[in-house]
Amino acid sequence: MFAAIALVWLLSIGSCVLLGAGAGYAVDAASKSELAHRVGKRADEYELKQHNEIANREASVHTRDDYVRDYDQNY
């Protein structure tokens, strides 16, 4: 009886190991694909675009002091 339980346990552990190895191989192969590189490049471009938009919005905000200083310097 113990041998049967041990065999089932070993087979279940073995199947989990094989599933894990297969999943690891699939993820590794997918990460090296051309599509993954294009998606990564697009994500980087999108992140840079978002960063630039935020920086431009922050740079375009002016307070009253900015206008007063500009007036005092130029007029």
Summarize the structure.
This protein is an all-alpha fold and 75 residues long. It has helices at residues 2-31, 34-59, 64-74.
Task: Spell out the key features of this protein.
single chain; 75 residues; 3 helices; 0% strand
Structure description:
This protein is mainly alpha-helical and 75 residues long. The chain has helices at residues 2-31, 34-59, 64-74. It is rod-shaped and about 100 Å long.
Provide the fold topology.
Blueprint: H1 2-31, H2 34-59, H3 64-74
How many helical stretches?
Answer: 3
What structural category arises from helix and sheet content?
A: mainly alpha
Helix-strand pattern: HHH
Number of β-strand runs: 0
Low-confidence stretches: none
Largest sheet: none
Work out the radius of gyration: 30 Å
Helix content: over 70%
Q: Estimate what percentage of residues fall within beta strands.
A: under 5%
Could you tell me how far the N terminus lies from the C terminus, measured between alpha carbons in angstroms? 99 Å
